[in-house]
């Protein structure tokens, strides 16, 4: 019996991962894998992670975050849905595309269309 128990424990421990230790006040980003966005139609072009949230309460398997008021999500999320936030490297230039205003709405200027899908209207722009 003991030999079988040891073998089962060995098999289970082989697949186990060590969990990250979260502390109150840590900054995390949230995975968008299970989130639904109303204005983002193409999931492929959605960011993989959003925000920079502060952990409020910590448990072994869940963390409570303080999200933006515009996000309608449950405050308590599984630890597999969060990743530690890393500050951007100092001195690194981040070039954001410039927005232009058309009829009071800010939009990006498209220089050229690189590709187009025929079945579903999608454009690859530059």
**What is the count of helical runs?**
1
Task: State the name of the first-level CATH class of one domain.
Answer: Mainly Beta
Silhouette: elongated
* Mean pLDDT across every amino acid position: 79
Give the uncertain stretches in residue-range form.
none
Strand element count: 9
Order of helices and strands: HEEEEEEEEE
**Numbering strands along the chain, what is their spatial order in the largest sheet?**
4-3-2-1-5
- The radius of gyration computed from the alpha-carbon positions, rounded to a whole number of angstroms, is 22 Å
| Terminal Cα span | 65 Å
Query: What is the CATH third-level topology name of one domain?
Result: SH3 type barrels
What's the helical proportion of residues? 10-25%
**Strand-residue fraction?**
25-35%
What kind of sheet is the major sheet? Answer: 5 strands, antiparallel
Structural class from helices and strands? mainly beta
CATH architecture of one domain: Roll
Short description:
By secondary structure, the protein is mainly beta. The chain has one helix at residues 2-15, and strands spanning 27-31, 49-58, 62-65, 76-78, 82-84, 99-102, 105-108, 113-117, 122-125. It is built from one helix and nine strands; from the N terminus they run αβββββββββ.
Question: How would you portray this structure in words?
Answer:
This protein has 126 residues and is mainly beta. The protein has a domain at 6-88: Roll (SH3 type barrels), CATH 2.30.30. It is built from one helix and nine strands. Strands 4-3-2-1-5 form a five-stranded antiparallel beta sheet, with no helix packed on it. Strands 6-7 form a two-stranded antiparallel ribbon. The mean pLDDT is 79.
């Amino acid at each position: 019996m003991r030999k079988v128990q040891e073998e089962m424990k060995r098999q289970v421990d082989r697949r186990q991962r060590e969990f990250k230790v979260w502390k109150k006040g840590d900054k995390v980003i949230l995975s968008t894998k299970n989130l639904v966005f109303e204005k983002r139609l193409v999931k492929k072009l959605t960011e993989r992670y959003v925000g920079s949230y502060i952990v409020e309460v910590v448990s072994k398997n869940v963390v409570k975050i303080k999200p933006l008021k515009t996000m309608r999500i449950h405050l308590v999320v599984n630890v597999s849905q969060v990743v530690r936030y890393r500050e951007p490297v100092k001195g690194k230039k981040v070039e954001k595309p410039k927005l232009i205003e058309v009829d009071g709405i800010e939009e990006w200027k498209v220089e050229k269309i690189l590709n187009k899908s025929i079945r579903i209207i999608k454009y690859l722009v530059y």
